[in-house]
Every structure is written in structure tokens, then in C-alpha cells.
């Protein structure tokens, strides 16, 4: 695979896609619809961005497969050749309510090996990127994590509201033991907070391939722990839980909380 050429085009397309989103926000004519309920939204912008990438990939890389959220034609359950995994807008609810705190998330795999990853925080204009083997960058500045391996007591955790509200696997208790808990509502940027060291762990009960693909590649690149909640390996094309954290935090969450509770 021609990594440099894919990187050049992926960056170009991300910036173009970001400009399309900003234009849509400025015109304020996009349609919002509910998928499974009032908190599960999709907009005409999500669909437009997915179509934009699908067209570009088909034109430049006709043999590559695209896995993406909105179109049933973009669903594959196995890796074959080069696979692009795209969330055209991650954090759609934030996009609708706040016009901020959303991102385009893109991970590119050769067979099942992550090779390139991008998360574009469109409102802030920040691009998180990674070519595997070269490190992780934010706007072309190499990431050096703030706190390398803190204890749980020194850590900042990110968890979904559902986990906190039900004290799932006693993880709300773990949150009390941590320095603080935050909640952003956008999985890709929550993973990026751990990637850059603004947070030390992020836990979610259920995420889709396009939510985690980019963050998973970057976490592996930085030697962070990235597993299902029960500690098992992740197959990025399957839906499931996520626990990304620095080593000691991952270990403490696992041994002091998760493994002491029956997983349901
Ligand atoms: C959602 C966001 C949210 C996470 C949900 C995802 P979407 O993605 O990342 O933070 O908790 O599980 O589905 O639907 O806005 O692309
Ligand atoms: Ca998403
Ligand atoms: Ca989405």
C-alpha cells in the first residue's frame, strides 16, 4: 500500500470535508432525523460527508473497501485488502445541539493491521494523525503524553453517563477514587484526550467500529492499553465495549473493580 499517497489524500479530503461541514453549519439548512429515538440522531451532513469520502475512495482506490456508519452499502465484517473505517460525524448529538465537540474519525487498515489514523476536530481545526511507526501528531506536533503512567488516584477518567448512573462494574466507585471524571459525548475525541494525556482512561460499554478505529490505531502506536472492558483483545470490525488507558490505570480498573464484579 502506498502509505504516503494515502496520507496526502486522506488529509486533503478531511480538510475538504471539514469545509463542507462548516458551510452547512453557516447555511443552517441541514435536516435532522431520529434513528432509534430522540437521542440517536443523524443529519443530512453526516450522509453528505460519508458520500464525499465514498466517491473519493472509489475514484482513487477502487479496490479499497469502506466501512462507515450511515450507508448499508458500507458494511463489511471482515478485513480484505485495504479497509477505510469512517465516522463521517462522530458526536452527531453535539453537532446538532452545540455545533461543536464533534469530529470526523478515520482509520485505515491493511488486512487487520492499522496503518493510518486521523481524527479531525472540525470546530477547533485540530487534526490528530498517525502513520504507524512514526508516532502520533496533533497539527504536526508530535504527541508527548502529559502524565505517562499515573496511579488511579492521580488520574482523570472519562466515562459514559450510563456507566456512572448505574455504577456499572463499580466503575463509578473507581471514578470517585480518581482525581476527576469527565464526559464529552464524542468517543473519538474522548479517545484523543487519552492519546494526548489530557485524560488517563476512557471507558464505554458499547461502541461501533467507526467510533474506535482511529483511536485504536493511535493507542497501539503509543503503547497504551486498549481492550474490551473484560481485558480481551479488540477486533475493530466488531461492536463492543472499550477501555483505553495508561498501564497502571488500566490494571487498577481491571483488578480492583471490573474483575471483582460479574460482567453483564
Ligand atoms: C456516538 C458518540 C458518543 C458515544 C456513542 C456513539 P455518533 O457516535 O461517539 O460519544 O457514546 O456510543 O454512538 O452516533 O455521534 O456518531
Ligand atoms: Ca460515532
Ligand atoms: Ca456518526
UniProtKB/TrEMBL annotation:
Signal peptide: none annotated. Mg(2+) 1 binds at residues 69, 87, 89, 211. The keyword Metal-binding applies. Keywords: Hydrolase, Magnesium, Metal-binding. Gene3D superfamilies: 3.40.190.80, Fructose-1,6-Bisphosphatase, subunit A, domain 1. Mg(2+) 2 binds at residue 90. Its cofactor is Mg(2+). It comes from the Bacteria. The keyword Metal-binding applies. CDD domains: IMPase_like. Its EC number is 3.1.3.25. GO terms for biological process: inositol metabolic process; signal transduction. InterPro entries: Inositol_monophosphatase-like. GO terms for molecular function: inositol monophosphate 1-phosphatase activity; metal ion binding. This is Putative inositol-1-monophosphatase. It comes from Brochothrix thermosphacta (Microbacterium thermosphactum).
